[in-house]
Structures are given as C-alpha cells and as structure tokens.
C-alpha cells in the first residue's frame, strides 16, 4: 500500500509540474517561439558559442527580480536555435564584482592550458560599490572555463586578465581566434571607442590600438557589446571585416540601438572604409552579437528585444524581456557600397504551418478572425505607398506604413502603453534608398520583426495588446496589388 501511495504521489506531482509548466508559458505577453528566461530579468545575449552539436546562449540575468540588478550569466542550449533547454546559472557574482557581458570560445588547441576544447568565457567584472562612489576603474576583464560543455565553471585564479587603469566604461569583451596572426584577438568597448588586444593564451593580453570611425560620429553615447568578424562578399571571393557596435542612446528612434562598420583589419588595427549602417531601425533591437564557431562559418546573430528607455518597466510579471529570432548575416554589395542582409535561420521553416496563400490580391484587402498572435506574413509589392494594420476587438492596433522612401511603425494604439512615456513616441521611422518589393513580418504575441527586400532593411518592435490581434487590413493610395501573399502559423516551441 505504501508503494502504491508513493507511486500515486509521484504521478500527481509529475502531472502538476507538467500542467504548471504549460501554464507558465501561456502567461500574457509571453512569446511562444522566441527565447525568454524561465523567470526574472534578462538583457544582453552573452557567450554565444556552438560546440558538439549545440548552440549555447548565455545572457545577462538577475535571478531575484524582474528589474536589472547584480548580473549573473544565465544559460540555455539548443540544437536548432528555436527549441531551447534552460540550464543552471553559469556564472555568479563574487568579491571582484558582478558578471557583465562578454563572449565564449572553444579553445581547440589548449592555448590557455585548461584542457583541449575547453569552453572559455571572457567577461567583464563590474564592481558596483566602486561605481556608486564615482571611481573610474570599476570594470576589468576576466575568464572562466568549463570542461563539461558549459554546465559547471571554474573562474581563473589569476583574474582579472586585463585590469582597468582609468576608463569608467570598459566592458563587454569579444574574442576570436585570428588565423592570419595565429593569435587571439579581443575587441572591447571603452567609452565611445573600441580597444583592440592580442593574446597567445587568453590570459596575457597586449593592447594594440583604439578604433574611432572615420569620419567620426557626432553623438553615440556609451559603446557596448562589440563584435568583429571577417565575411566573404556574396557572389564574390573578396572578404571584408564587419564590426558591430551597440550604444545606449542617440539612435534613430531613441534609446539603445545597433550599427555596424565595414572595413579592413590586420590583426591590430581596424579601419572602416565606408560610413556606418544601422543594423535595425526599430526601437527593440540591442546588444546584438554573433555565435562563435557556428557551422559552415555562418554568422548567426541574436539581439535583446528591448530598449533601455523602458526595459525595466514593460508590463510582464514573472519574467522580463525576450531575444530576437536568430538571424544569419550575409554580406552583400551594391555599387561600391557593402551592406548586411539578415535572414531568419533555416530552422524557422520547420515550425511554420501555412494557413492562407494567395497568388494575387487587389488592394484594399481586409480579413478578420485570423490568428495573428503567432504568425509570419509575407508578400511582394510593386507600388510606392502601402499601409498594413493589425487590430483586435478592443480597438487596439499597430500600423506599419511604406511611403516611397520612408518606412514606419506606429504602436501608439497597440494596447498597454502607459508604463512609459517613451514607449509610443516618436513613431518609429526608417529611410529606404531603394524600391521596397519584398515584405516579411513575424509576429509572436508582443513582438514584431520586419525584414524588407530579403533582409536588407530591418525593424524590430515590441507591444502589449490586451487581446491578440485578429484583423488585418492592407491598403494603398495607389491602384495596385500584392502578390505571393502568405500567412503562416508559427508553432509553439516551448
């Protein structure tokens, strides 16, 4: 009888946990196919690394509250970048400071001496007490290693590996093995510039140069989360270097954002060869960095889907913030100007289920009783002016609009907006320098990711409707039509 009682108790607990888990991811405004933490606060993606068939996502995490606090590194892994497994917290604060952003590498040649193929995290220590007292040298760089694919970590006893002499903002190291110089390179945000270092062993670093763009940028705020990598140009054997820079203000639509530079790098000095380009013009795309060691040398990027103007105030109760969908970067060229295209990684197609498909639709077009909470909309267009509005029965809506050389998003009536006066103004705008013919719009409850012209233009935004959007209206001031129109349902991945 005792064994039967224990067995019944086990199955009851198992059933309760499964039910509780299902309820957990059905919370209002919880994305269904984007990465979110199980609970509490999340911001920058950190330590993106691929190893032994798994993508590892570490992230800035405060496990005690849904607002920013003493930073840890959360951890999750995936085999396809869409179905994620939550893993134990990787790195905790200690006497040297909180664990700020950084990267992870696989040390294939055991250059650091921790073991062949050790997973090594390179991160910033932030001493918050010194910071609050106004000291400048509050941030330093450190390393930790794992010999079990990121499940347990040992911090290097010789930390910090790069001390800080005078820089107040001196953080977010990104490291890669550079075959051209047979050494490790590090790029590190320092105020409004990038410091570049080299090392043979990840422990002893030599400063080489500072990067400031030419021509310089008038206002950028504090630079953070730098990335640097070499890419082949699409359809060409030529290679160029790409530097991604995130900064906290002076972005096109306010708050934090991400831009990139194309240029040349000799292992010590990076020189941009053209002006910077914004990677995304929406308000909710920040701290984007790419995976180290991704298969087939692909450059796969993930960004934090929020903005420092209101990130601590968004109306969720159990968790806060999501990541963008993973995007593969492709370096393209038009005339003498290089640019990046972004496309959602190929695994996305495996979670799509086509619901509506039409060869041609004369505008205006409207449809009701649609499930637009988890959806991908795509179509082609030949005109100059178009507006697309999603709405619900509560008269809440979000509108995107193309007006020849400008694309915009208006979320002022999208639902819950009163948590911040910075959330609805201004209307988000993006300049476009070529005819927009190709639309892809991805919706996941509180988020919208828009890719235009095969990912040449990108806008990402979040919103919080009180009810899922179920009506769609597409209009134009011209007598025109759209073609290849598809609405795909996107399956839940949690």
Q: Mind explaining what this structure looks like?
A:
This protein has 494 residues and is mainly beta. It folds into two domains: 38-344, Glycosyl hydrolase domain, family 43 (Tachylectin-2, Chain A, 5 Propeller); 348-490, Sandwich (Jelly Rolls), CATH 2.60.120. The protein has helices at 2-24, 128-132; strands at 40-51, 54-62, 72-78, 84-91, 98-107, 118-126, 139-146, 154-155, 170-178, 183-190, 193-199, 205-211, 223-232, 239-247, 257-265, 270-272, 277-278, 286-290, 299-304, 319-320, 327-334, 337-344, 352-362, 365-367, 374-381, 385-391, 397-403, 406-410, 428-431, 438-444, 447-452, 457-462, 471-475, 481-490. A six-stranded antiparallel sheet has the order 23-34-25-30-31-32, with no helix packed on it. Strands 24-33-26-27-28-29 form a six-stranded antiparallel sheet, with no helix packed on it. A five-stranded mixed sheet has the order 4-3-2-1-20, with no helix packed on it. β7 and β8 (154-155) form a beta hairpin. The model is unreliable at 1-19 (pLDDT under 50).
């Amino acid at each position: 009888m005792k064994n039967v009682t224990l067995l019944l108790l086990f199955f009851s607990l198992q059933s309760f946990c499964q039910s509780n888990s299902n309820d957990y991811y059905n919370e209002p405004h919880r994305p269904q196919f984007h990465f979110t933490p199980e609970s509490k606060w999340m911001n920058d993606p950190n330590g993106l690394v691929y190893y032994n068939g798994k993508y590892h996502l570490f992230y800035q995490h405060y496990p005690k509250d849904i607002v920013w606090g003493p930073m840890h590194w959360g951890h999750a892994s995936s085999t396809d970048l869409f179905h994620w497994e939550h893993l134990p917290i990787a790195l905790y604060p200690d006497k040297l400071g909180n664990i700020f952003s950084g990267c992870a590498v696989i040390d294939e040649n055991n250059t650091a001496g921790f073991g062949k193929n050790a997973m090594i995290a390179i991160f910033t220590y932030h001493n918050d007490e010194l910071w609050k007292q106004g000291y400048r040298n509050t941030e330093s760089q450190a390393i930790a290693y794992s010999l079990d694919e990121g499940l347990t970590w040992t911090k290097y006893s010789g930390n910090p590996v790069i001390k800080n002499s005078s820089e107040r903002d001196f953080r977010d190291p990104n490291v890669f093995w550079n075959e051209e110089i047979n050494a490790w390179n590090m790029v590190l945000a320092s105020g409004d510039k990038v410091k570049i270092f080299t090392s043979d062993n990840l422990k002893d670093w030599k400063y080489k140069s500072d990067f400031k763009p030419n021509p310089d940028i008038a206002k950028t705020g504090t630079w953070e989360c730098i990335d640097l990598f070499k890419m082949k140009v699409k359809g060409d054997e030529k290679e160029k270097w790409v530097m991604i820079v995130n900064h906290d203000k002076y972005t096109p639509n306010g708050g934090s954002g991400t831009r990139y530079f194309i240029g040349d790098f000799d292992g010590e000095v990076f020189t941009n060869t053209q002006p910077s380009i914004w990677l995304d013009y929406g308000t909710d795309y920040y701290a984007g960095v790419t995976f180290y060691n991704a298969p087939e040398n692909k450059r796969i990027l993930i960004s934090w889907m929020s903005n420092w103007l209101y990130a601590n105030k968004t109306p969720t109760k159990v968790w806060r913030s999501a990541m963008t969908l993973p995007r593969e970067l492709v370096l393209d060229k038009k005339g003498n100007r290089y640019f990046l295209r972004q496309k959602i990684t190929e695994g996305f197609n495996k979670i799509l289920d086509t619901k509506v498909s039409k060869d041609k639709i004369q505008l205006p077009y409207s449809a009701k009783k649609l499930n637009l909470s988890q959806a991908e909309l795509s179509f082609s267009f030949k005109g100059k002016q178009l507006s697309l509005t999603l709405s619900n029965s509560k008269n809440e809506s979000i509108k995107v609009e193309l007006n020849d050389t400008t694309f915009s998003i208006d979320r002022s009536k999208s639902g819950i907006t009163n948590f911040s006066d910075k959330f609805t103004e201004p209307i988000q705008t993006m300049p476009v320098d070529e005819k927009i013919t190709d639309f892809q719009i991805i919706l996941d409850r509180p988020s919208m990711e828009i890719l235009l012209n095969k990912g040449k233009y990108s806008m990402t935004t979040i919103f919080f409707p009180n009810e899922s959007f179920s009506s769609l209206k597409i209009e134009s001031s011209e007598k025109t039509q759209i073609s290849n129109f598809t609405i795909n349902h996107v399956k839940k991945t949690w």
